[in-house]
Design a protein that fits this description.
DNA polymerase, domain 1, RNA Polymerase Alpha Subunit, Chain A, domain 2, single chain, 10 helices, Gyrase A, domain 2, about 325 residues, four-stranded antiparallel beta sheet, 3 domains, alpha+beta
């Protein structure tokens, strides 16, 4: 028998399965009938269209005036060199939006993607072959890298790079696959509730879970256009809206041995009798630093982990949630 409601029920359960550094499965439930696809479809589009990645946008090759040229002693002509180059997935270090790197190689040598790693950029797959040089070959070039979203054709980038550079199509999207399935799930004898199962795969530039987090943030920022007119504070729409929210409490009660902390950090917390994520959320930075044998590096690691779960320096628990959390921790330690 259906009950009269004044609002749809809010999902309370989420499972995050990080299969590898490039694959993850995220499961959320229970949604009322029809709500799962309402959320899943736009999230999939945002995953594919708004995830931040990195790409080379221009090349300057000494001795080559255009992409149909060739370099003496290099087995590949410039067109093939560019194809090889665009197959490499780069990462700009230090979260910069742009970076320019210069390279110089002399033969005999097989130049691979791993040879391009330096203080400014890293690569995902270091074994990709870029060029094969004979003993009399010399290859000198510079590359401009950029951070962006989606796909930008070379003709749209001509005004952003030097006039003597070869402009490249920029394929920023790091998400290779973003699929979802919706299954029914039983809730209080009602079989019509739904479960979303996201399967996300990236190229290694970004973790799948981070890609989903970015998509959710983008969705929230797009919805914020309505906040001024309709007096809605989207900043308050957190994962839990009251002290009784099971989703937040479940996250706060995660055991510390499941958080992926290093051995030194974990051992220091364990010796102090800290067993749950929520205990760290309740602590001030001063209290955290006072834990015996917990150095600055460990403190930084713990704070980064807390931020990944959404508990950064600006996060505050409401009094009801704090009281419920303390009670649960005490019950588990009795």
């Amino acid at each position: 028998m259906r009950k009269i409601k004044t609002a749809p029920s809010t999902p309370t359960e989420i499972e995050v399965n990080e299969i590898s550094s490039t694959k993850a499965q995220v499961i959320a439930y229970p949604f009322e009938s029809g709500y799962a696809i309402t959320l899943a479809h736009p999230l999939r589009r945002l995953l594919l269209g708004s995830s931040i990645g990195y790409a080379p946008i221009s090349l300057k090759i000494e001795g080559a005036a255009h992409e149909f040229d060739s370099i003496r002693g290099m087995h590949e002509d410039i067109a093939v060199f560019i194809i090889n180059f665009k197959s490499i997935r780069f990462i700009i270090k230090d979260e910069l939006d742009r970076a320019t790197s210069s390279y110089s190689f002399k033969g005999p040598l097989t130049v691979t993607a791993g040879d391009l790693v330096n203080d400014q950029v890293d690569v995902v797959d270091k074994d990709i072959v870029l060029a094969t040089l004979n003993e009399d070959a010399e290859l000198n070039f510079s590359v401009e890298f950029a951070k962006g979203i989606g796909y930008v054709p070379s003709e749209d980038l001509r005004d952003e790079v030097d006039s003597d550079a070869i402009v490249l199509d920029a394929f920023f999207t790091p998400v290779r696959k973003a699929n979802y399935t919706i299954e029914n799930v039983l809730v209080e004898d009602n079989p019509d509730y739904e479960k979303i199962i996201f399967d996300i795969e990236t190229d290694g530039q970004i973790k799948p879970v981070d890609a989903l987090k970015n998509a959710l943030q983008t969705m929230q920022s797009q919805l914020s256009i309505f906040s001024g007119v309709f007096n809605i504070d989207f900043g308050e729409l957190k994962s839990v809206e009251s002290g009784g929210d099971k989703g937040l409490l479940k996250t706060l009660m995660l055991p510390i041995d499941s958080l992926g902390l290093g051995a030194r950090s974990f051992n220091s917390l364990d010796r102090e009798g800290i067993k749950f994520l929520g205990e760290l959320v309740l602590m001030s930075e001063k209290e955290l630093k006072s834990i015996k044998n917990l150095g600055q590096r460990s403190v930084s690691e713990i704070k980064e982990m807390l931020a990944e779960y959404g508990f950064d320096d600006n996060f505050e628990l409401d009094e009801e949630t704090k009281s419920s959390l303390i009670s649960k921790i005490e019950q588990h330690k009795e």
